[in-house]
Amino acid sequence: MDAIVKMLEKHQPFFEKISRNIYLQAIKDGFLGCMPIVLTSSIFLLIATLPGVVGITLPQPLIDWCNKLYNFTMGVMGIMVAGTTAKNFTASMNRRMPAGKVLNDGSTMVAAQCSMLLLAVTQFTTKFNGSELSVFDCTSMGTRGLFSAYIAAFITVWVYKFCVSRDLTIKLPKEVPGAIAQNFRDIIPFGGAVIICGIIDVVVRNLMGVPFSELLIKLLSPLFTAAETYPGLILIQAATAFFWFIGVHGPSIVQPGIDPIRLANQAENLQVLLAGGHPAHSLTFNMSLVGEFGGTGATFIVPLLLILFMKSKQLKAVGKASIVPVAFAVNEPLLFGAPMILNPYMLIPFVAAGCVNVSVAKFFIDNVGMNGFSFVVPWATPAPIGIFITTNFQLIALVFVAIIILLDAIIYLPFLKAYDKLLCDQEAERAAELGLESDGAATIAANASAPAVEQTTVSVEPTAAAADSKPVADQPEPAFDASAKKDVDGLKVLVLCAGAGTSAMLANAIKEGAAQTGENIASSAGAYGQHTAIMDQYDVIVLAPQVRSYYNDMKADTDRLGIKLLAPRGKEYIDLTRDPAGAIKWLRENLD
Q1: Which residues of 46-79 are buried (b: 16+ CB within 10 A; e: fewer)?
Q2: pLDDT by residue (tens digit) across 403-459?
Q3: Active site residues
C-alpha cells in the first residue's frame, strides 16, 4: 500500500501539469462561464414538456414561447463558448506576454465568435413568398459547433499574440483617446483571425464538401462510438476518480475532452424523448450524477456507512460532518477529512464505485428501458432526485438508484472496515500511551482532529508544482489585542474552488466568524476560472485544496494586483470551515 502511495506522489507534479495546461483550462473555464445557458434553457424545456407527462395541456403560445427561449439560449451555445473560451485563453496568454504588451480580451472574444460562425455555419439562399432570402443554417450554432468554437478561440488568440508581440497594429497619435486608439490597434489582429478562419472554411468545404464543424464530427465519430461503450464509460470514470485520488481535480482534466460529446448526446436524447421515442445515449452531461453519485468517487453512501458501521471516533465524526454536503455533491469534507485522497485503503473503491455505476446505468438504458438522461439539472442537485428528473420521472430510475446505492455500499464497506480497524488500533495505542482507559480514545481522537487554527503556528505551503513560489513562512502566533483588529478591518476575501461549492463553506465560516468577533470582513465564494473579472475587488484570495495546483498562475496575478494569496492544505481548510472564529484568527495570522 505504501509503495502505491509513494508512486502516485512521485508522479503528482506530472498530473498537476496536465491540469494547468492553458488549453484545457481555457476550455473548462469557458464552458463553465456558459453553464447558466445550459441550466436556464433546461428550465424552459421542463416547463414546456413536463406538464404533458402528467396529462396537463399548456396553452400552445406558452409552449412556443418556452421553446423560443430554449432555441435562443442553448441554440447559440457554440457561439457563446467561442467567446468565453477566447476570453479565458487570453487571460492565460497575457501572463506570457512581454512587459507592456497586453491582449484585449473583449476584442478576442468578439473575434472568436465571428470566426466560429465562419467555421460552423452554412449560408444559402431560398425563396419565400416569391422573394429570395439569405438564410443561416443554425444547426451548428449550438452544441454541435463546440469543436469549431474551441478551434476559433485558439486561432484567434494566437493571431492576436503574434500581431501584438510584433507591434503589427495601427498606431494613432497619443492625443487620440485610449478607447478609440485600442479599437484601431485591434483591427489588424481581428482581421487576421477572421481571414484565417475564413480560408480554413473555404478549403474544407471545397476539399471535403462539408463545413468545418461537420468535418470534426466525422473525424471524431470513432471516439464518439468508443466513448459510449462499456470500456469507454469505465475509462472516463476511472480517469476522473484516479486524478482526484492523487489530489488533482479530475473533472477539470477529463471533462473538457468529452463535454461536446455529452452535450450533443443529451440534446439528441431530448429530441427523441419529445418525439415519443426512447432516449438511448448513455454518455450525456448528467451521466455525472451516476458516475459521481454524491461527488467524485460515488461517495453518496459513504457518510452513512461511517456513521452506522465504523467504530473509530474519527470516521464517525467525519461521517456526521459530511453527510449533508455530500448529499449535495460537495464531498471535499469527506475526501480530506477521512481522508480518502491518497489513502491507499480507499484507492480501489474510490475508482471502482463510479465505474460500476456507469456500467449499470448503460445496462438499464440499453436493456431495461430506462431513459437516457435528457434534461440538465444543477450539479448540486441530490443525485437520486436528479436522476429521477433527468430520466423524465421514470419509476424504473428509482429502482436503478436503489441498486447503485446498494452496490456502492458493498464496494466501500470492506475497505472502510479495514481502514476503521487501523484507526481504532491507533486510537487505542494513543490511549494506552497516555495511561487512559480504552474508552478514552474518543477524547484523544477529538483532540487529534482539533482545528489546525488552534495550533501555535500556521503555514501556507505551495504545492509541488508551485515550488518556485515563495511560501508563507511559519510565524509565531501573535497575541490578540485591539490594535490587531485594524489588520483585517474592511477586508474583502474571495474563496475559490473548482465549482463554488467548497469555497462557499469557508466563505460562510468567515462571514459567521466576522459576526462573532465584530470584525468588518466581507467574504465571497467563486469558481476558479470565473474570478479574473472580479479579483481586483478583493484584498485576499484563498485557494481551496482542489485548485491549489493553480498556485503559480494565481500568484502571478495576485502579485501584480497587490492581493494576498493563501492556499491552505486539505485538513486545515476543512478545519477552518468548521471554526468561524478560528477562520478569522487564521486570516489575521497570515496577513503581512
Answers
A1: bbbbeeeeeeeeeeeeebeebbebbeebbbbbbb
A2: 999 999 999 999 998 888 888 877 776 666 455 444 444 443 444 443 333 333 333
A3: 497
